[in-house]
Amino acid sequence: MVCCGRWQWAHLLWVLAVWWFCFGFWRVISACPTSCKCSSTRISCTNQEPGIVAFPRLASASDAKNITDIYISNQRNLESINGSEVLQYGGLVNLTVIDSGLKFVSREAFRNNLHLHYINFSRNKLSNLSRKTFHHLNLTHLILTANPLQCSCDNMWIKLMQRAALFGLETQSLECINENKKKKSLASMDIPSCGVPEVRISPTNLSVVGGKDDALYCYFSGAPPPNVSWNFNSLTTEYMTELDTYVIILKLTNISSNDNGKIISCIAENAVGEEQASVQLVVYFKPQITFLEKGIPDHHWCIPFSVRGNPPPALQWFHEGAILNETDYIWTQIHEVNQSEHHGCLQLDNPTHVNNGLYRLHAQNEYGTDERQVMVHFMGAPALDTFTEPTEYEWTTETSSPNVGLTTDDGEGNLSTDPSKTAKEDSVSVYVVVGIAAIVCTGLVIMLIILKFGKHSKFGIKGNRARYARHSAVQQVTHDDIRLCFVSYDSTGWVGEVRKAKTVRQTEKNKRKTF
Asked: For the whole model, what pTM was predicted?
C-alpha cells in the first residue's frame, strides 16, 4: 500500500510537470509573432515570408520580461525601432538585427534596457545614429559594419568612440559617404564646426556660511550649440536658473546646512558628445546634536550620539555638572562620519552605580554651540549590611540552639512564651552548671595535691605495701581522663564548656624509680 501510494504521487507530480512545461511552452509559442520562433528566453525572426514590418512584441508582458536574446535577420521590411517597441524587454542582453532594412533607431529606443550589452546592426541601411541612443548603456559591443553612414556631424561621435577604443569599434572597418557620394574611412572624417562642447564653472570652490545667498556661473561653448543644464541630487536649498548666450547662472538662496558636501554639475551636450564641470558646495554652520540616547550595554557600555557641524565641533562631556575627564575606562569613540555628521558613543568600561547620573554633551565650533543631556542608570547601589545589638543574652552550648521562640510549661499544663520566665530558667541553669563544674574541679585539684605530696607525709603508709598502694593510685590517675571546667562570659551571656584533658603518663623510668 505504501509503495503504491508513493508511486501514485510520483506519477501525479510527473504529469503536473509535463502539463506545466507544455502549457508554458505553448503559451509562449501562441504569443509569438508571425515569421518568428519563440522560447522562454529567446525570440528569433529569420523567415523572409511573410516577414515582419515592426519590431516583434509579445502579447504577455510577464513573458517579455524573461526574454534575454532577440535575433532578427533577412527582414527587408523592418525599417525602424521606435521608443516603445523594446520597452517591454527589460531583461534583454543581446540584440541582433542584421541583413535587414533598418534605417532609423529612436533616441528613446533603449531607455529601459539597462542590461543590454551586445548590439549588432551590421548590413542594414543606417545613415545616422544618435549618440543619445546608447550613451546610458554599458555596452561591450556595438557592431555597425556595412551601413551607409553619412559623413556628418551626427556621426562624429562614432569616430570619437572608435579612436577611444570603446564598444569594440576600433576593430571595425567603418566607412561614411561624403557630400560627393563617395565612400571614405570614418576615422579620417573631418567636419568643420563640429566638436565636443566645453564648460567652465566659476567660482571653482563655493564655500558659504549657512543661511547666506550665493551664485554659480557656468560658461559654455561648442558647435553645434550644446544644450546646457545644471545637475544636482536633491538640493534642499532654494534655487533658480538664468540662461544667457554663453552662460547659465544658478542662484542659491538661504543655503541650507543639509547641502554641505553636495556636488553641483554643469552639463553641456550636443550631437558630438557631452562635457561637464563640477564643484562641491561647502556650508559652514554651528553644531547641532541631533541624537543623544540612554546607555546601551554592548562589549562596552555606550551612550550613543550624533552631532552635525562644519567645521567638526569639539566635544566635551559633563557628569552631574562636573567636567568628565576621559581615561582608559571612559572615552569618546566616533564610529561613522557622513558628510558633516558624526555618529559615535561615550564608551564606558564596566561602569558601576558611581557612574549613574545626568550626562551632558557640549559641542562647539567657531560658529556656535549646542548642548543636550540624558539621564543614564547602569546599576543599582549595593545593599549595606547592618548590625543589631541583641536585646537579651542567651546561653548556648555546642549542641543547643538559641532559645528564641521556645515555650515553657507553667506547671499546670499551660505553655508560655513569656521572655521573663525564659530568662529566669536560663539563669538557674547557668548557676547549676557552674556549681557542678566548680565541685568537680575542686575535687580534681585536691586529688592532684594528695598524689603529689602524699609520699612525703609522715602519716603515710610505710614499707613496700605503702609504695605499692601509692603506685596504684598514681597509675589509676594517669590512665583516667581528667575533665577541666571553664566558665566564661561573652556578648551572648554566660557560656559553660567542659573540655577533656589527659594527664601525662608515667614513663617506664619513673615506674622503676618508684619500685
From this structure: 0.60
